Amino acid sequence: MPTPTDSSTGVSVTVRYFAAARAAAGTDSEAVSVPRGAGVGALAEDLAGRSERLAAVLRRCSYLRDGVAVRDHEAPLQPGETVDILPPFAGG
């Protein structure tokens, strides 16, 4: 589990990738530090800057914060939160 970072630099959150997002990111999960006050939108923007493949997947994804669907992408992330990145799934 990530630990909070210094308040002047930001907060640490766990990012978990699923399906196509996992393939594009090349990992199941990772700890990511975001600037204090950053929301899921800023996190996704930062992650998208890593590769075009990941950026393409992230544009289609839904996000969960500690298991709750994200509606406000600008709400500040809190230290220790988990953000799940969920691409659209087919089937049932």
From TrEMBL:
Q: Name one GO biological process term.
A: Mo-molybdopterin cofactor biosynthetic process
What Gene3D superfamilies does the database record attribute to this sequence? 3.10.20.30
The residue range of the signal peptide is none
SUPFAM superfamilies attached here?
Answer: MoaD/ThiS
**What InterPro entries would the database entry show?**
Beta-grasp_dom_sf, MOCS2A, Mopterin_synth/thiamin_S_b, ThiS/MoaD-like
Keyword annotations for this protein, in alphabetical order, are: Nucleotide-binding
Q: Spell out the GO cellular component terms annotated for this protein, sorted alphabetically and separated by semicolons.
A: molybdopterin adenylyltransferase complex
Q: Which GO terms describe its molecular function?
A: nucleotide binding
Q: Which Pfam families match?
A: ThiS (PF02597)
Coiled coil stretches, renumbered: none
* Recorded family membership: Belongs to the MoaD family.
Please name the PANTHER family in this protein's record. Answer: MOLYBDOPTERIN SYNTHASE SULFUR CARRIER SUBUNIT
> Under which name does UniProt file this protein?
Molybdopterin synthase sulfur carrier subunit
